[in-house]
Amino acid sequence: MKRKEEPFQFSDFDEQQATGELKRQVAQLREPPATISHTHWSNLLVKTNRRIDEATSAKALSISWAARVAIPGVVAILFFFIGLHYYVPQVGKKESSVASLVNMLPQEAVDSILAEPGRLSASLAANEGSSDIFQFSTEQLSDYLVVTGNAQTAVENLNDSEVRILLSLLDNKKNL
Amino acid sequence: MERLSDLDLVNEVRGGKRQAYTELMRRYQQRVYWTARRIVGSHEDADDVAQETFVRAYLALGDFRGDSSFFTWLYRIAVNLSLNVLRKKQVLGYLRQSDIINRLLPADDDPHKDLEFAETTSRIEKAIAGLPEKQRAVFVMRYHDEMSYEEISQVLKTSVGGLKANYFHALRKVQEYVKDEA
């Protein structure tokens, strides 16, 4: 049977009593209150004003524009051209014949192909799986990011909703 | 000279008088700092939150409609930023538990830093640091800043009943901690 949830009972009087009791306990500890020098507040004003200037200046605008638009744009264009370079058939280019290719190989390589043809086909089969150089497994990608990336910076740059999502995922993982 | 109200100063800032914003900062920077400090628990983070709060408020001043007081609006920004800092710390805490990333993150193992923190942190601050983020924020606003539940509700966008429950649990935990430490 579903238990009916009781409304939370914490009257204003109870709250005042409990808060007052805690304040008395804290007072009995006789800890000196944390103080911050007057200079700190003046510096805080200066630092905040500087940050406002930076945030509203054209320089800040260009930096944020570069971070949000230009850099990802350049990366995307770069990948596009690299992709074009590797994937578009080279129309008009004269294809080399097998004979001319064999002639370009050193003599030892030709001898080894003739002596052990099975070895060549095995190595070709092994390469076949990774023919697409832009295809990485998720594990490979995350390994790369973990090894080369700065996790702290990455976390600091997350926005609030991303942090919430990540946190709930991590919480779920922890509870499993 | 007559003391201008917050709203008058806001209108002056909107009219281009930057000096008026400095006056607003002077009025509230300590309250913003201490609220942030009690939630995030460290001076450096609180300092950063205080600065960021005023920067964001300045940039969003055009959106301030005056439905609530300027300070409540500012306070909301500060509390949300503080909670965001806490969440990021929590994510980093999880990551630090991972063996791989543990090696890549800068270690917080400066013994002098810990000592300094221990010396400057009162028992009540340590007790607050042990609370879950929501309870921590509610406790700071209710106990230290003596805000009404209605005001806290405006800041955290939570029902008054939920806030009372959070405050009750936070109060009990802090009391137990302080009692044990005494």
Question: Can you walk me through this structure?
Answer:
The complex is a heterodimer of chains A (176) and B (182). Chain A has helices spanning 12-28, 38-56, 58-87, 98-104, 107-115, 117-128, 138-148, 151-156, 160-175. By secondary structure, chain A is mainly alpha-helical. Chain A starts with 11 loop residues before the first helix and ends with a helix. Chain B has 10 helices and no strands. The longest helix of chain B is centred in the middle third of the chain and has 28 residues, at 70-97. With 182 residues, chain B is mainly alpha-helical. In chain B, helix 4 (70-97) crosses helix 9 (149-156). At the A-B interface, helix 1, helix 2, helix 8 and helix 9 of A face helix 2, helix 3, helix 4, helix 5 and helix 7 of B.
Topology:
The complex is a heterodimer of chains A (176) and B (182).
Chain A lengths: L11 H17 L9 H19 L1 H30 L10 H7 L2 H9 L1 H12 L9 H11 L2 H6 L3 H16 L1
Chain B lengths: L5 H9 L3 H23 L2 H17 L10 H28 L1 H6 L6 H10 L2 H7 L3 H12 L4 H8 L3 H22 L1
**Amount of beta strand of chain B:** under 5%
Mean pLDDT of chain A: 71
Count of DSSP H/I helices of chain B: 10
Q: What kind of oligomer do you see?
A: heterodimer
Order of helices and strands of chain A: HHHHHHHHH
Question: In terms of structural class, how would the helical and strand content of chain B be classed?
Answer: mainly alpha
What's the overall average pLDDT of chain B, rounded?
Answer: 85
Order of helices and strands of chain B: HHHHHHHHHH
Shape of chain A: elongated
Question: Helical content of chain A, roughly?
Answer: over 70%
- The poorly predicted ranges of chain B are 109-120
Radius of gyration of chain B: 18 Å
Largest sheet of chain A: none
The amount of beta strand of chain A, in percent, is under 5%
